[in-house]
Amino acid sequence: MLHNPMRFVHFIGNESVPSRSGESLPVVDPSSGTVFAQIARGDAGDVDRAVGAARAAYAGIWGRVSAVDRGRLLRRWADAVEAHVEELALLESQDTGKPLKQARADAVALARYFEFYAGAADKLHGTTIPYQDGYTVLTLREPHGVTGHIVPWNYPMQIFGRSVGAALAAGNACVVKPAEDACLSLLRVASLAAAVGFPAGALNIVTGLGPEAGQALAEHPGIDHISFTGSTETGKRVAIAAAGHHCPVTLELGGKSPQLVFADADVDAALPVLVNAIVQNCGQTCSAGSRVLVERALYEPLLERLAARFAALRAGPASMDLDLGPLVNRKQQQRVWDFLSDAQAGGIELMAQGEIVDDAPGDGFYQAPVLLRDVPSGHRLWQEEVFGPVLALQPFDDEDEALASANGTQYGLVAGVWTRDGARQMRLARRLHCGQVFINNYGAGGGVELPFGGVKASGHGREKGFEALYAFTTLKTVAIRHG
Length: 483
Ligand code: NAD
Prior knowledge:
23 strands, 483 residues, 15 helices, binds nicotinamide-adenine-dinucleotide, 6-stranded mixed β-sheet, 2 domains
């Protein structure tokens, strides 16, 4: 039995493995605030065991699986996930508080990541390089070896899919440390990997706390590459730990992503997207469109229409499948409350607020979506990531002013531009300092095929799309002198 409905343990070498210490951590349902399961509390010893299993797989049977067969395994895994979407969605929604439709979308996206990387596995080619007479020079794309993956709680399945899917396609063996608030779906997905034929040790999962299991993974000398998704602060810690053993890192960190709406925009098209980009997953999305800058002529009319939409939004238990579920935990709820009390103290006007339905359990971690107007650039509501359903608005008078404000935070993950002016579209796409720009659309977290990642405090390196395969490989140059 690979998992038990109430007690979840590590997944190492295709087996369920309790933590060596015998300790576990409670799993809380954010919709009700009640404990409904336990996960193993992994420590450095458990991590060491998982890395050992991965190293043995890489040196053994997994390391010899051809690219085409790695692709076939990923394809079978995608099919297995598709066949279990409902089960995975239910598990995820209870574990994280996601409304069921969001949890289903995440499971479908996970299958799509595996499908994408299944197709890409045998298309990762090296090159030949013209060099001196009498030489043939070629490059080989080789797996790093054993890759570590530290995953946050906001989109566990999607982030696991993009990171582990690409790493396995490239031939690495993986050790994953999911967030302590969101492990259950991933343990089930790992059991599906074993069921479709991934050899023991190709994929291993150790659950536990960040400073314990996470830190141990980042420090482990048997890890050859780390992919970290999470907060900017923890990302720094992981990079420092990895530097201790010369381990390359991909860091996908936070964001405060702006959407710029010009007076000539198609407002009917923009409105639902502006709302969804901050409401999706209760605002707990690294690429949430959390700042909206509006050209002054459109500011009041757009605000009015946005306010009407916000007032109609409803938050409630994940199982009710409303616009928003609860936030993931009490700490996150307190964090959002702190931001909102700072907004109040700073005299920022709350323009509209959605509602929490009456039958939402009182101990759940709910937060109604909030629309704030005229947020000054210097305020922390404009500068810092809330990671909750709080949208900050600001008017602008010209393109340069909008650009300066949009680029004027420590982050640079995603940006959106709404205008019918083609020249302006191109200018802003080039001048916005971030990893992705959407013109007349916005993809908070979407786009399996689209390379994704940040600049500045939003991180470095790219995941998703074909680009991720380069991150999960290392390039070797072979120069052959044959005369
Ligand atoms: P977090 O940084 O607290 O945790 C992320 C992961 O790191 C978890 O698995 C956690 O257990 C682990 N961790 C914590 N301390 C650690 C340590 N010392 N060493 C190693 N691992 C450690 O972040 P979170 O609260 O889980 O997620 C929210 C943050 O993640 C937000 O800031 C959000 O913007 C960011 N995020 C970014 C992306 C992206 O792709 N850019 C995606 C999702 C979330």
